[in-house]
Amino acid sequence: MSDFILTTEQRDLRDEARAFVSKEVPRQLLLDMDADKIRYPREYIQKLAAHRLLGLRFPEEWGGRGMGWSHEVLVLEEIGVLGATLACLYSLPSIVGEAIHVFGSHEQKEKFLAPVLEGRMTVAEALTEPRGGSDFFGATATAKREGDFYILNGQKRFIVGAEGADLFLVYACTNPDASSHKAISALLVERGEGVEVQHVYGLMGTRGGGTGRVYFRNVHVPAENLIGREHDAYTIFNQMMIPERMTSAAGALGLARAALEIAARYADRRKAFGQKIREFEGVNFKVAESLTRLDAARALVHETARIIDSIGNSEYVRRMVSESKKFATDTAWAVVNDAMQIMGGIGYTNVYPIERLLRDARLMTIWTGTNEIMNLVIQHEYYKELLASVPSARDVEADALSADVDGEKVYE
Q1: Which of 7, 169, 303, 360 could form a cystine bridge with 205, CB 3.0-4.6 A?
Q2: 3-class SS at 235?
Q3: Distance, CA of 176 to CA of 80 (rounded, Å)
Q4: 347 with 245, same domain?
Protein backbone atom coordinates (compact mmCIF):
# COMPACT_ATOMS: atom_id res chain seq x y z
CA MET A 1 0.00 0.00 0.00
CA SER A 2 1.37 3.40 -0.94
CA ASP A 3 2.68 5.43 1.98
CA PHE A 4 1.04 8.50 0.46
CA ILE A 5 -2.48 7.43 1.43
CA LEU A 6 -1.72 5.83 4.80
CA THR A 7 -2.23 7.66 8.04
CA THR A 8 0.71 7.92 10.42
CA GLU A 9 -0.96 5.31 12.64
CA GLN A 10 -1.39 2.90 9.73
CA ARG A 11 2.16 3.39 8.50
CA ASP A 12 3.57 2.79 11.97
CA LEU A 13 1.47 -0.35 12.38
CA ARG A 14 2.57 -1.70 9.01
CA ASP A 15 6.20 -1.07 9.90
CA GLU A 16 5.66 -2.77 13.24
CA ALA A 17 4.32 -5.83 11.47
CA ARG A 18 7.21 -5.80 9.00
CA ALA A 19 9.68 -5.71 11.87
CA PHE A 20 7.94 -8.67 13.51
CA VAL A 21 8.06 -10.69 10.30
CA SER A 22 11.73 -9.86 9.75
CA LYS A 23 13.01 -10.40 13.29
CA GLU A 24 10.66 -12.75 15.13
CA VAL A 25 10.01 -15.51 12.60
CA PRO A 26 13.13 -17.60 11.99
CA ARG A 27 13.77 -19.15 8.60
CA GLN A 28 14.11 -22.55 10.24
CA LEU A 29 10.52 -22.37 11.47
CA LEU A 30 9.26 -22.07 7.90
CA LEU A 31 11.48 -24.93 6.74
CA ASP A 32 10.49 -27.21 9.63
CA MET A 33 6.79 -26.51 9.13
CA ASP A 34 7.01 -27.26 5.42
CA ALA A 35 8.86 -30.50 6.24
CA ASP A 36 6.13 -31.43 8.78
CA LYS A 37 8.71 -31.42 11.56
CA ILE A 38 6.64 -28.79 13.33
CA ARG A 39 2.93 -29.45 13.25
CA TYR A 40 1.74 -26.48 15.23
CA PRO A 41 3.91 -23.40 16.03
CA ARG A 42 2.39 -22.34 19.35
CA GLU A 43 5.39 -20.16 20.13
CA TYR A 44 4.66 -18.10 17.01
CA ILE A 45 1.13 -17.35 18.29
CA GLN A 46 2.53 -16.41 21.68
CA LYS A 47 5.04 -14.04 20.07
CA LEU A 48 2.28 -12.33 18.12
CA ALA A 49 0.32 -11.91 21.34
CA ALA A 50 3.35 -10.54 23.18
CA HIS A 51 3.64 -7.86 20.47
CA ARG A 52 -0.11 -7.14 20.75
CA LEU A 53 -0.66 -7.99 17.09
CA LEU A 54 -3.56 -10.41 17.59
CA GLY A 55 -7.17 -9.25 17.27
CA LEU A 56 -6.33 -5.67 16.38
CA ARG A 57 -10.00 -4.87 15.72
CA PHE A 58 -11.23 -5.79 19.18
CA PRO A 59 -11.46 -3.33 22.09
CA GLU A 60 -8.46 -2.77 24.34
CA GLU A 61 -10.59 -4.10 27.19
CA TRP A 62 -10.13 -7.59 25.76
CA GLY A 63 -6.54 -7.20 24.56
CA GLY A 64 -7.03 -5.70 21.11
CA ARG A 65 -6.19 -2.21 19.93
CA GLY A 66 -9.62 -0.94 18.94
CA MET A 67 -8.60 -0.56 15.31
CA GLY A 68 -10.48 -1.38 12.11
CA TRP A 69 -10.24 -3.58 9.07
CA SER A 70 -8.23 -0.85 7.35
CA HIS A 71 -5.50 -1.59 9.88
CA GLU A 72 -5.83 -5.35 10.05
CA VAL A 73 -5.44 -5.89 6.30
CA LEU A 74 -2.17 -3.95 6.38
CA VAL A 75 -0.75 -6.32 8.99
CA LEU A 76 -2.14 -9.37 7.21
CA GLU A 77 -0.35 -8.48 3.99
CA GLU A 78 2.93 -8.34 5.89
CA ILE A 79 2.25 -11.66 7.62
CA GLY A 80 1.25 -13.10 4.24
CA VAL A 81 4.79 -12.92 2.88
CA LEU A 82 5.56 -15.83 5.24
CA GLY A 83 3.10 -18.04 3.36
CA ALA A 84 -0.45 -19.22 3.85
CA THR A 85 0.00 -21.22 7.06
CA LEU A 86 1.30 -18.48 9.32
CA ALA A 87 -1.13 -15.98 7.81
CA CYS A 88 -4.01 -18.35 8.57
CA LEU A 89 -2.87 -19.03 12.14
CA TYR A 90 -2.56 -15.28 12.65
CA SER A 91 -6.12 -14.91 11.37
CA LEU A 92 -7.81 -17.51 13.57
CA PRO A 93 -8.06 -15.28 16.68
CA SER A 94 -9.65 -12.65 14.46
CA ILE A 95 -12.09 -15.15 12.93
CA VAL A 96 -13.16 -16.98 16.09
CA GLY A 97 -12.88 -13.75 18.05
CA GLU A 98 -15.43 -12.15 15.73
CA ALA A 99 -18.10 -14.62 16.83
CA ILE A 100 -17.29 -14.08 20.51
CA HIS A 101 -17.05 -10.31 20.23
CA VAL A 102 -20.19 -9.74 18.15
CA PHE A 103 -22.47 -12.44 19.57
CA GLY A 104 -20.88 -13.52 22.83
CA SER A 105 -21.78 -12.53 26.38
CA HIS A 106 -19.57 -10.45 28.66
CA GLU A 107 -18.69 -13.62 30.52
CA GLN A 108 -17.69 -15.39 27.29
CA LYS A 109 -15.44 -12.49 26.37
CA GLU A 110 -13.77 -12.62 29.75
CA LYS A 111 -13.37 -16.39 29.68
CA PHE A 112 -12.36 -16.85 26.05
CA LEU A 113 -11.65 -13.70 24.03
CA ALA A 114 -9.20 -12.11 26.45
CA PRO A 115 -6.99 -15.22 26.88
CA VAL A 116 -7.04 -15.82 23.12
CA LEU A 117 -5.70 -12.33 22.42
CA GLU A 118 -3.15 -12.75 25.21
CA GLY A 119 -1.85 -15.93 23.58
CA ARG A 120 -2.83 -18.10 26.54
CA MET A 121 -5.52 -19.93 24.58
CA THR A 122 -5.35 -21.06 20.94
CA VAL A 123 -8.36 -21.48 18.68
CA ALA A 124 -9.72 -23.22 15.59
CA GLU A 125 -12.98 -23.00 13.68
CA ALA A 126 -14.65 -26.40 13.25
CA LEU A 127 -16.89 -25.95 10.24
CA THR A 128 -16.09 -28.39 7.41
CA GLU A 129 -17.38 -31.97 7.62
CA PRO A 130 -16.40 -35.15 5.74
CA ARG A 131 -19.67 -35.09 3.80
CA GLY A 132 -18.91 -31.70 2.30
CA GLY A 133 -17.28 -28.31 2.68
CA SER A 134 -19.24 -25.57 0.95
CA ASP A 135 -22.59 -27.05 2.03
CA PHE A 136 -22.37 -25.49 5.47
CA PHE A 137 -26.03 -25.85 6.37
CA GLY A 138 -25.91 -29.57 5.73
CA ALA A 139 -23.90 -30.07 8.94
CA THR A 140 -24.43 -33.51 10.48
CA ALA A 141 -22.64 -32.93 13.79
CA THR A 142 -25.35 -32.78 16.47
CA ALA A 143 -25.67 -31.04 19.81
CA LYS A 144 -28.59 -32.22 21.93
CA ARG A 145 -29.62 -30.13 24.93
CA GLU A 146 -29.77 -32.07 28.17
CA GLY A 147 -30.21 -29.89 31.23
CA ASP A 148 -27.29 -27.50 31.57
CA PHE A 149 -25.29 -29.12 28.77
CA TYR A 150 -25.30 -29.83 25.07
CA ILE A 151 -24.18 -33.35 24.18
CA LEU A 152 -22.03 -32.90 21.08
CA ASN A 153 -21.36 -35.70 18.60
CA GLY A 154 -19.87 -35.66 15.13
CA GLN A 155 -16.70 -34.93 13.29
CA LYS A 156 -15.07 -32.13 11.36
CA ARG A 157 -12.17 -32.22 8.95
CA PHE A 158 -9.64 -29.94 7.26
CA ILE A 159 -9.60 -27.88 10.47
CA VAL A 160 -6.58 -25.56 10.42
CA GLY A 161 -5.09 -25.25 13.88
CA ALA A 162 -6.80 -28.39 15.19
CA GLU A 163 -3.54 -29.96 16.33
CA GLY A 164 -2.84 -27.23 18.86
CA ALA A 165 -6.22 -25.64 19.52
CA ASP A 166 -7.43 -25.24 23.09
CA LEU A 167 -10.83 -23.98 21.96
CA PHE A 168 -13.02 -24.83 18.97
CA LEU A 169 -15.86 -22.81 17.49
CA VAL A 170 -18.16 -25.65 16.43
CA TYR A 171 -21.25 -25.50 14.23
CA ALA A 172 -23.70 -28.31 15.00
CA CYS A 173 -27.31 -29.25 14.33
CA THR A 174 -29.52 -28.54 17.35
CA ASN A 175 -32.92 -28.62 15.64
CA PRO A 176 -33.02 -31.53 13.16
CA ASP A 177 -36.71 -31.06 12.38
CA ALA A 178 -36.29 -27.47 11.18
CA SER A 179 -35.22 -26.14 7.81
CA SER A 180 -31.46 -26.02 7.34
CA HIS A 181 -31.20 -22.29 8.02
CA LYS A 182 -32.91 -22.72 11.41
CA ALA A 183 -31.25 -25.95 12.50
CA ILE A 184 -27.65 -25.01 13.34
CA SER A 185 -26.13 -23.54 16.51
CA ALA A 186 -22.61 -22.35 17.31
CA LEU A 187 -20.81 -23.59 20.41
CA LEU A 188 -17.50 -22.85 22.06
CA VAL A 189 -15.98 -26.23 22.85
CA GLU A 190 -12.91 -26.53 25.03
CA ARG A 191 -10.46 -29.31 24.34
CA GLY A 192 -11.03 -32.08 26.84
CA GLU A 193 -12.76 -35.37 27.37
CA GLY A 194 -14.49 -36.61 24.23
CA VAL A 195 -12.56 -34.30 21.92
CA GLU A 196 -10.04 -36.17 19.78
CA VAL A 197 -7.82 -34.60 17.15
CA GLN A 198 -6.13 -36.67 14.47
CA HIS A 199 -3.47 -35.15 12.27
CA VAL A 200 -4.15 -37.25 9.21
CA TYR A 201 -3.53 -35.06 6.19
CA GLY A 202 -0.51 -35.06 3.94
CA LEU A 203 -0.97 -31.61 2.49
CA MET A 204 0.41 -30.37 -0.81
CA GLY A 205 1.22 -27.05 0.84
CA THR A 206 0.13 -24.85 3.77
CA ARG A 207 1.87 -27.27 6.08
CA GLY A 208 2.66 -26.97 9.77
CA GLY A 209 -0.65 -25.40 10.77
CA GLY A 210 -1.98 -28.46 12.57
CA THR A 211 -4.67 -29.18 10.00
CA GLY A 212 -6.57 -32.25 11.15
CA ARG A 213 -9.76 -34.13 11.73
CA VAL A 214 -11.65 -33.53 14.97
CA TYR A 215 -13.96 -36.07 16.57
CA PHE A 216 -16.57 -35.09 19.16
CA ARG A 217 -17.89 -38.07 21.11
CA ASN A 218 -20.52 -37.30 23.73
CA VAL A 219 -18.80 -34.07 24.65
CA HIS A 220 -20.61 -32.25 27.46
CA VAL A 221 -20.59 -28.60 26.42
CA PRO A 222 -21.91 -26.16 29.06
CA ALA A 223 -25.05 -24.41 27.85
CA GLU A 224 -23.44 -21.06 28.63
CA ASN A 225 -20.96 -21.80 25.81
CA LEU A 226 -23.68 -21.29 23.22
CA ILE A 227 -22.81 -18.34 20.98
CA GLY A 228 -25.77 -16.13 20.14
CA ARG A 229 -29.21 -17.67 20.03
CA GLU A 230 -29.94 -21.37 19.76
CA HIS A 231 -30.61 -22.58 16.19
CA ASP A 232 -29.39 -19.22 14.84
CA ALA A 233 -25.90 -19.97 13.57
CA TYR A 234 -27.11 -18.72 10.17
CA THR A 235 -26.84 -15.17 11.53
CA ILE A 236 -23.41 -15.87 12.97
CA PHE A 237 -22.20 -17.46 9.74
CA ASN A 238 -23.24 -14.40 7.73
CA GLN A 239 -21.13 -12.26 10.05
CA MET A 240 -18.23 -14.70 9.93
CA MET A 241 -18.04 -14.36 6.15
CA ILE A 242 -16.32 -11.04 6.74
CA PRO A 243 -13.27 -12.14 8.77
CA GLU A 244 -12.93 -15.48 6.98
CA ARG A 245 -12.79 -13.93 3.53
CA MET A 246 -11.01 -10.68 4.35
CA THR A 247 -8.18 -12.48 6.12
CA SER A 248 -7.76 -14.81 3.14
CA ALA A 249 -7.75 -11.89 0.74
CA ALA A 250 -5.24 -9.78 2.64
CA GLY A 251 -2.90 -12.69 3.32
CA ALA A 252 -2.91 -13.54 -0.38
CA LEU A 253 -1.64 -10.04 -1.17
CA GLY A 254 1.50 -10.61 0.87
CA LEU A 255 2.16 -14.02 -0.64
CA ALA A 256 1.80 -12.65 -4.18
CA ARG A 257 3.96 -9.63 -3.41
CA ALA A 258 6.75 -11.81 -2.08
CA ALA A 259 6.73 -14.02 -5.17
CA LEU A 260 6.71 -11.06 -7.55
CA GLU A 261 9.60 -9.34 -5.78
CA ILE A 262 11.73 -12.50 -5.89
CA ALA A 263 11.04 -13.02 -9.59
CA ALA A 264 11.58 -9.37 -10.54
CA ARG A 265 14.92 -9.23 -8.71
CA TYR A 266 15.95 -12.47 -10.36
CA ALA A 267 15.04 -11.05 -13.78
CA ASP A 268 17.24 -8.03 -13.08
CA ARG A 269 20.25 -10.26 -12.26
CA ARG A 270 19.87 -13.22 -14.58
CA LYS A 271 21.40 -12.83 -18.04
CA ALA A 272 20.72 -14.74 -21.23
CA PHE A 273 21.74 -14.03 -24.81
CA GLY A 274 23.99 -11.28 -23.51
CA GLN A 275 21.43 -9.23 -21.58
CA LYS A 276 19.31 -9.24 -18.46
CA ILE A 277 16.20 -11.30 -18.96
CA ARG A 278 14.06 -8.42 -17.68
CA GLU A 279 14.80 -6.74 -21.00
CA PHE A 280 12.93 -9.44 -22.89
CA GLU A 281 9.29 -8.68 -23.57
CA GLY A 282 8.22 -12.20 -22.60
CA VAL A 283 9.57 -11.53 -19.11
CA ASN A 284 8.92 -7.87 -18.50
CA PHE A 285 5.31 -8.11 -19.65
CA LYS A 286 4.72 -10.81 -17.04
CA VAL A 287 6.16 -8.48 -14.40
CA ALA A 288 3.91 -5.65 -15.60
CA GLU A 289 0.79 -7.84 -15.69
CA SER A 290 1.52 -9.31 -12.25
CA LEU A 291 2.11 -5.89 -10.72
CA THR A 292 -1.11 -4.54 -12.23
CA ARG A 293 -3.10 -7.50 -10.93
CA LEU A 294 -1.57 -7.14 -7.49
CA ASP A 295 -2.21 -3.40 -7.28
CA ALA A 296 -5.81 -3.91 -8.41
CA ALA A 297 -6.36 -6.66 -5.85
CA ARG A 298 -4.85 -4.55 -3.08
CA ALA A 299 -7.07 -1.60 -4.03
CA LEU A 300 -10.18 -3.81 -3.87
CA VAL A 301 -9.21 -5.32 -0.51
CA HIS A 302 -8.49 -1.94 1.07
CA GLU A 303 -11.63 -0.36 -0.36
CA THR A 304 -13.65 -3.24 1.07
CA ALA A 305 -11.93 -2.80 4.44
CA ARG A 306 -12.92 0.87 4.51
CA ILE A 307 -16.51 0.00 3.59
CA ILE A 308 -16.76 -2.52 6.43
CA ASP A 309 -15.32 0.01 8.86
CA SER A 310 -17.93 2.53 7.68
CA ILE A 311 -21.14 0.48 7.52
CA GLY A 312 -20.52 -2.89 9.18
CA ASN A 313 -22.26 -5.93 7.75
CA SER A 314 -24.79 -5.83 4.90
CA GLU A 315 -25.66 -7.61 1.68
CA TYR A 316 -23.40 -5.16 -0.13
CA VAL A 317 -20.52 -5.95 2.22
CA ARG A 318 -21.03 -9.68 1.67
CA ARG A 319 -20.63 -9.08 -2.05
CA MET A 320 -17.51 -6.99 -1.58
CA VAL A 321 -15.77 -9.41 0.78
CA SER A 322 -16.54 -12.23 -1.64
CA GLU A 323 -15.10 -10.20 -4.51
CA SER A 324 -12.02 -9.44 -2.44
CA LYS A 325 -11.43 -13.06 -1.49
CA LYS A 326 -11.96 -14.31 -5.03
CA PHE A 327 -9.91 -11.67 -6.80
CA ALA A 328 -7.02 -11.56 -4.34
CA THR A 329 -6.58 -15.33 -4.16
CA ASP A 330 -6.97 -15.76 -7.94
CA THR A 331 -4.38 -13.00 -8.30
CA ALA A 332 -1.99 -14.71 -5.91
CA TRP A 333 -2.24 -17.95 -7.87
CA ALA A 334 -1.63 -16.16 -11.19
CA VAL A 335 1.24 -14.04 -9.87
CA VAL A 336 3.08 -16.97 -8.28
CA ASN A 337 2.68 -19.00 -11.47
CA ASP A 338 4.12 -16.15 -13.51
CA ALA A 339 6.95 -15.75 -11.01
CA MET A 340 7.88 -19.39 -11.51
CA GLN A 341 7.68 -18.98 -15.29
CA ILE A 342 9.96 -15.94 -15.17
CA MET A 343 12.54 -17.85 -13.15
CA GLY A 344 12.35 -20.99 -15.25
CA GLY A 345 13.71 -24.25 -13.91
CA ILE A 346 15.34 -22.74 -10.82
CA GLY A 347 11.92 -21.55 -9.68
CA TYR A 348 10.74 -25.15 -9.61
CA THR A 349 13.43 -26.12 -7.10
CA ASN A 350 13.76 -25.40 -3.40
CA VAL A 351 16.64 -23.01 -4.03
CA TYR A 352 13.96 -20.31 -3.96
CA PRO A 353 10.69 -20.33 -1.97
CA ILE A 354 8.57 -19.89 -5.11
CA GLU A 355 7.61 -23.57 -5.23
CA ARG A 356 6.43 -23.43 -1.60
CA LEU A 357 4.44 -20.26 -2.23
CA LEU A 358 2.88 -21.91 -5.29
CA ARG A 359 1.75 -24.88 -3.18
CA ASP A 360 0.37 -22.52 -0.53
CA ALA A 361 -1.43 -20.30 -3.03
CA ARG A 362 -3.36 -23.21 -4.51
CA LEU A 363 -5.32 -23.78 -1.31
CA MET A 364 -6.27 -20.12 -0.98
CA THR A 365 -8.72 -20.39 -3.87
CA ILE A 366 -10.43 -23.30 -2.08
CA TRP A 367 -10.64 -22.49 1.62
CA THR A 368 -13.13 -20.18 3.38
CA GLY A 369 -15.50 -20.91 0.51
CA THR A 370 -14.25 -21.87 -2.93
CA ASN A 371 -13.96 -19.13 -5.49
CA GLU A 372 -16.86 -20.74 -7.34
CA ILE A 373 -18.96 -20.17 -4.22
CA MET A 374 -17.67 -16.59 -4.20
CA ASN A 375 -19.05 -16.20 -7.73
CA LEU A 376 -22.44 -17.44 -6.56
CA VAL A 377 -22.51 -14.90 -3.73
CA ILE A 378 -21.27 -12.05 -5.90
CA GLN A 379 -23.83 -12.43 -8.68
CA HIS A 380 -26.66 -13.18 -6.23
CA GLU A 381 -26.07 -10.04 -4.18
CA TYR A 382 -25.52 -7.95 -7.31
CA TYR A 383 -28.84 -8.99 -8.85
CA LYS A 384 -30.61 -8.17 -5.60
CA GLU A 385 -29.08 -4.70 -5.68
CA LEU A 386 -29.70 -4.18 -9.39
CA LEU A 387 -33.31 -5.31 -9.52
CA ALA A 388 -34.29 -3.51 -6.31
CA SER A 389 -32.94 -0.16 -7.42
CA VAL A 390 -34.27 2.52 -9.71
CA PRO A 391 -31.67 3.73 -12.21
CA SER A 392 -30.52 7.14 -11.04
CA ALA A 393 -28.25 7.84 -13.96
CA ARG A 394 -28.81 8.03 -17.69
CA ASP A 395 -30.85 5.26 -19.33
CA VAL A 396 -28.06 4.12 -21.63
CA GLU A 397 -30.18 1.25 -22.96
CA ALA A 398 -32.13 3.82 -24.96
CA ASP A 399 -28.99 5.15 -26.66
CA ALA A 400 -29.25 2.89 -29.70
CA LEU A 401 -30.52 3.70 -33.19
CA SER A 402 -33.20 1.02 -33.14
CA ALA A 403 -33.95 1.11 -29.43
CA ASP A 404 -37.66 1.78 -29.99
CA VAL A 405 -38.33 -0.51 -32.96
CA ASP A 406 -41.45 -2.57 -32.32
CA GLY A 407 -41.08 -6.30 -31.88
CA GLU A 408 -37.32 -6.43 -31.34
CA LYS A 409 -37.04 -6.45 -27.55
CA VAL A 410 -38.67 -9.82 -26.92
CA TYR A 411 -37.81 -11.58 -23.66
CA GLU A 412 -40.11 -14.59 -23.62
Answers
A1: 360
A2: helix
A3: 40
A4: yes
